[in-house]
């Protein structure tokens, strides 16, 4: 696993004894700081897209204040040229108007909201909006996303039918057609090759894998919220 040192902006790879780390779940913009650029020089290059650099630095500041030395950001820490690394990362991931936030429309953000025990929400100016553990925030998240509060509280996802979990993603979108299937691999605890270029066939393969692993016919009866 590759982590970003929030003090030096250097990337380090950990094979064992992974230290505690904070995660930034976000939506991608133009000219993100990516793995291929190497985070340290990119973050120190003031000529780069200021908004994306400030996003990473703002996250690092918050993580530091929370007592973390390491952070994980998909754009910086995943080598997307390695399908095996990307697949492993996906499985392990297992004061604006919150209702209008585009983060709630993105497929990849679903796992980022459900899987971690602690999720804190900030606006683009890094003003604190609330935590997933707050009762009032759970009510808002349930209303906005349709995700059951039991799941938000850490309930095991095997307790929810395939149809229910599919409905959580029904109003979300991804930049690539394949990702609407791949972003659900962790939700369903499914392992399957990620074959970019296959288009909508990825979702068919996902359904086939769900049928193989689960005796749950609700998969064929789910509907949008």
From TrEMBL:
<dbReference type="Pfam" id="PF06985">
    <property type="entry name" value="HET"/>
</dbReference>
<dbReference type="InterPro" id="IPR010730">
    <property type="entry name" value="HET"/>
</dbReference>
<feature type="domain" description="DUF8212">
    <location>
        <begin position="201"/>
        <end position="223"/>
    </location>
</feature>
<dbReference type="InterPro" id="IPR058525">
    <property type="entry name" value="DUF8212"/>
</dbReference>
<protein>
    <submittedName>
        <fullName>Uncharacterized protein</fullName>
    </submittedName>
</protein>
<feature type="domain" description="Heterokaryon incompatibility">
    <location>
        <begin position="21"/>
        <end position="90"/>
    </location>
</feature>
<dbReference type="Pfam" id="PF26640">
    <property type="entry name" value="DUF8212"/>
</dbReference>
